[in-house]
């Protein structure tokens, strides 16, 4: 069952090597035993054969991981690096803010998970309807993972529309995570990163669209998954049309997102330790 799930993830990414790289990072961090790596690689290869076909059978078809319509990256500048650092911080705050809201929502509804699930679904639907009425954007701007909406995001030139989409997607992401819905955390985080990158390129002079999108993707992905190498590689692959020169910006975003997540995790652990200590019975005199 686990191998089938890994193969399915490979199909979603459109390239088995992306998933293989992510699994390797999991193994390096410790949660995955090294003995599982070879069976996982075989499962990824088998799943990709189902997509591309074998002999006369044409397979189920593949899809490109690259963002459609992304212009080429002309070159890295000091302004891009400074702006990229700022975008990485903002994107990380948004992603971790969604995660914090989700944790609070989950804790509040732990005793009544079913009503919480329905409330989260209703809230998400209202967000999607509200964004549609206010901006004319499709319901996909808020619903689902956002993977099929990325190309549309890149073409939006209205700052107010992007801000509404960003806020609604962040709240919907938090509602899904905290309300009990199950699914991959990566592409909703990618959608947040792309939205922030497009906003930065529109608002701040001298910042390019491909550079800021790459920073946004890498930082939000690393912050949500704690996988900085995977976050950087995924950002570069999604922005493959921009060229390889965006790689330093992807690394910058991934490092910022990962450091912030590690710091937040340590802070949460300290809070938990303090709570445990305060709840412990006092020692007899």
From TrEMBL:
- List the SUPFAM superfamilies: Clc chloride channel
UniProt keyword Membrane present: yes
Per UniProt, subcellular location reads as: Membrane
Q: What is this protein called?
A: Unannotated protein
Q: Which Pfam families match?
A: Voltage_CLC
Q: Which UniProt keywords apply?
A: Membrane, Transmembrane, Transmembrane helix
Transmembrane portions of the chain? 6-27, 34-54, 74-96, 116-134, 154-174, 186-207, 227-260
**What's a single GO MF annotation on this record?**
chloride transmembrane transporter activity
Q: Which Gene3D superfamilies match?
A: Clc chloride channel
Its GO CC terms are: membrane
List the membrane topology term(s). Answer: Multi-pass membrane protein
The answer to whether the entry has keyword Transmembrane helix is yes
